[in-house]
Amino acid sequence: MPISLFSYEIIASLYGEAFASTWFTPIGLSTKAG
Questions:
Q1: Which helix (H) or strand (E) segment is 29 a member of?
Q2: Where are the beta strands (DSSP E) in the chain?
Q3: What global pTM score does this model have?
Q4: What number of CA atoms fall less than 13 Å from residue 8's CA on the CB side?
Q5: What number of other Cβ atoms are within 10 A of residue 3's Cβ?
Q6: The domain containing residue 4 runs over which residues?
Q7: Helix (H, G, I), strand (E, B), or coil: what is residue 16?
Q8: CA distance 1 to 14
Q9: Does residue 34 lie within any of the structural domains?
Q10: What are the tens digits of pLDDT across the range 1-34?
Q11: What is the rounded CA–CA span in Å between residue 4 and residue 32?
Q12: In the chain, fewer beta carbons within 10 Å around the N or the C end?
């Protein structure tokens, strides 16, 4: 899994939870994985 919960925590701390939540939606994960 290329994106981990740890990465989510980093993004949340840097950009805010709202941004992280948007970034880590299933669509976002699929886009980055594909």
A1: helix 26-33
A2: none
A3: 0.44
A4: 15
A5: 14
A6: 1-29
A7: coil
A8: 21
A9: no
A10: 455 667 878 888 888 888 777 777 765 555 555 4
A11: 13
A12: C
